[in-house]
């Protein structure tokens, strides 16, 4: 966010904080206004537009990212709160040559139509599979209960996650 | 939606948080997990000039066995309550209810202290600590104060906390009776309870049936007088002041309270 002053401000009036964090394995330093949301840091500051902002009210889960491996809704976290922490976004899933098994699973099982909810779904699913490699269908549904999809009716999303779980186990 | 500008301070100790609160008074808000405060700030329903981030005070995040009671640090996250082996044994009502707050993402950020201090009557944990007869511990400039859960919730989003006090700990007595149940009626997993019920022994508390979490006093009296659970549950709406909103009329909430109390008492008795 650009901040414009009418008069030259004193140094301690400039409300910018320096934060250090890691995103998808890369160390970054950013200067942010305290009110900057994590979702906006990711999308506008880092130009990682795979993280979508849907409802902007902590409901839909489209903006889900991992902070220290845990799924959070980045529209409901301040950028200053990730100072010193590790963020993973959907851009961090694939390697240069290979899709992540979750991405493959969504492709194989038709886990998306419009794709808007998909990045958030994949990161919520990754958090599940990281600590539960052999989830039941019920486990998957519960892990995705904070993510809304308006196209698929969820069946294929659940199948996609189970596909990825099996691939990761083999 | 972007919050209005504010000055941000990160407290590195409880003492520093209290000093900042004393300095800024009612202009300041504590930020814990942020899942009550940030949505309000984004809607500009809350406009704090100062935000004191207490999210890194690790000594406020713990679950400990203290003999006849359990102590919970105010910054303990819902996810940690849900997955605590100690709570599963000693306070299964709390572990179960914490596992139904919001959704997985919300449970990774939200804290028990934040939920209690925010005092939304539609929140689950205020009614749970009320049913469990918990004691809330607050620290302020003049020291530490203990507040019974029954005296803590004063009104809609209002608590007994002073602006310069910080909720630091929740002490929950180990229940004498193993009978418990948590009932929550929602449209989607993620939603606030349209109505919820927490049962521990013969204590029954209601979510979203008034401006504060409430004990279902008429139900408890009937049970104490020997009424059958079903007959007692029929009194669940007595003394409540449920609001009407897009999800439910007052009549419907009262109906849900009777049904959910009946289910809760039945499930609790089945555990005896």
Structure write-up:
- The complex is a heterodimer of chains A (170) and B (272).
- With 170 residues, chain A is an alpha+beta fold.
- Chain A has 2 domains: 17-92, Roll (Ubiquitin-like (UB roll)), CATH 3.10.20; 101-169, DNA polymerase, domain 1.
- Chain A is 31% helix and 15% strand.
- Chain A contains 5 helices and 5 strands.
- In chain A, strand 3 (64-67) and strand 4 form a beta hairpin.
- In chain A, helix 2 packs across helix 5.
- The radius of gyration of chain A is 18 Å and the shape is elongated.
- Chain B has 272 residues and is an alpha+beta fold.
- Chain B folds into 3 domains: 7-53, Uridine Diphospho-n-acetylenolpyruvylglucosamine Reductase, domain 2; 60-173, Uridine Diphospho-n-acetylenolpyruvylglucosamine Reductase, domain 3 (2-Layer Sandwich), CATH 3.30.465.10; 180-270, Enolase-like, domain 1 (2-Layer Sandwich), CATH 3.30.390.50.
- In chain B, the strands form 4 sheets. A 5-stranded antiparallel sheet of chain B has the order 4-5-10-6-7. A 4-stranded antiparallel sheet of chain B has the order 11-12-13-14, with helices on both faces. In chain B, strands 1-3-2 form a 3-stranded parallel sheet, with helices on one face.
- In chain B, helix 5 (92-98) runs antiparallel to helix 8.
- The model of chain B has no long low-confidence stretch (mean pLDDT 96).
- The A-B interface holds A 1, 15, 17, 33-37, 40, 56-59, 61, 64, 70-73, 75-78, 80-81, 124, 127, 142-143, 145-147 and B 1-8, 10, 31, 34-35, 38-39, 41-42, 51, 53, 55, 79, 102-106, 108-109, 188-190.
Q: Secondary structure elements and their pairing?
A:
The complex is a heterodimer of chains A (170) and B (272).
Chain A: E1 17-23, E2 26-32, H1 38-45, E3 64-67, E4 70-73, E5 86-88, H2 101-108, H3 118-131, H4 137-143, H5 155-169
Chain B: E1 7-10, H1 14-24, E2 28-31, H2 37-42, E3 50-53, E4 63-65, E5 69-73, H3 78-82, H4 85-90, H5 92-98, H6 104-109, H7 112-118, H8 124-131, E6 135-140, E7 143-148, H9 149-152, E8 153-155, E9 158-159, E10 166-173, E11 180-185, E12 195-200, E13 203-207, E14 214-215, H10 217-224, H11 229-233, H12 250-270
Parallel strand pairs in B: 1-3, 2-3
Antiparallel strand pairs in B: 4-5, 5-10, 6-7, 6-10, 8-9, 11-12, 12-13, 13-14
């Amino acid at each position: 966010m650009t901040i414009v002053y009418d008069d030259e401000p004193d140094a301690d009036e400039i409300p910018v904080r320096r934060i250090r964090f890691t995103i998808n394995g890369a160390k970054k330093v950013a200067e942010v206004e305290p009110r900057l949301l994590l979702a906006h840091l990711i999308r506008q500051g880092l130009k990682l537009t795979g993280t979508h902002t849907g409802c902007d009210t902590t409901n839909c889960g489209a903006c889900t990212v991992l902070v220290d491996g845990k799924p959070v809704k980045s529209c409901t976290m301040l950028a200053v709160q990730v100072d010193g922490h590790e963020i993973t976004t959907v851009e961090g899933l694939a390697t240069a040559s290979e899709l992540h098994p979750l991405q493959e699973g969504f492709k194989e099982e038709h886990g998306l139509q419009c794709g808007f909810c998909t990045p958030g779904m994949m990161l919520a699913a990754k958090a599940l599979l990281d600590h539960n490699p052999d989830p039941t269908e019920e486990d998957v549904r519960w892990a995705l209960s904070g993510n809304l999809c308006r196209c698929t009716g969820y069946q294929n999303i659940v199948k996609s996650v189970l596909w990825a779980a099996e691939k990761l186990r083999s | 939606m972007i919050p209005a500008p504010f000055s941000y301070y990160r407290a590195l100790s409880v003492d520093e948080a209290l000093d900042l609160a004393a300095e800024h008074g009612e202009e300041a808000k504590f930020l814990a997990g942020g899942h009550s405060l940030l949505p309000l700030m984004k809607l500009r329903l809350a406009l704090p000039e100062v935000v004191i981030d207490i999210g890194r005070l690790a000594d406020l995040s713990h679950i400990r066995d203290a003999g006849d009671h359990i102590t919970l640090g105010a910054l303990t996250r819902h996810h940690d309550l849900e997955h605590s082996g100690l709570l599963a044994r000693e306070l299964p009502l709390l572990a179960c209810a914490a596992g139904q707050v919001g959704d997985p993402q919300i449970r990774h950020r939200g804290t028990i202290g934040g939920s209690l201090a925010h005092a939304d009557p539609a929140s689950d944990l205020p009614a749970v600590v009320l049913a469990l007869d918990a004691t809330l511990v607050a620290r302020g400039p003049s020291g530490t104060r203990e507040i019974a859960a029954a005296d803590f919730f004063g009104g809609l989003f209002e608590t007994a906390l002073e602006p310069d006090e910080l909720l630091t700990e929740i002490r929950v007595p180990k229940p004498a009776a193993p009978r418990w149940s948590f009932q929550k009626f929602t449209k989607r997993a993620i939603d606030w309870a349209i109505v919820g019920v927490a049962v521990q022994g013969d204590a029954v508390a209601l979510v979203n049936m008034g401006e504060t979490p409430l004990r279902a006093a008429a139900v408890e009296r009937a049970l104490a007088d020997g009424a059958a659970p079903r007959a007692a549950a029929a009194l669940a709406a007595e003394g409540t002041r449920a609001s009407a909103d897009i999800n439910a009329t007052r009549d419907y909430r009262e109906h849900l309270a009777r049904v959910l109390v009946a289910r809760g008492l039945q499930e609790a008795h089945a555990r005896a």
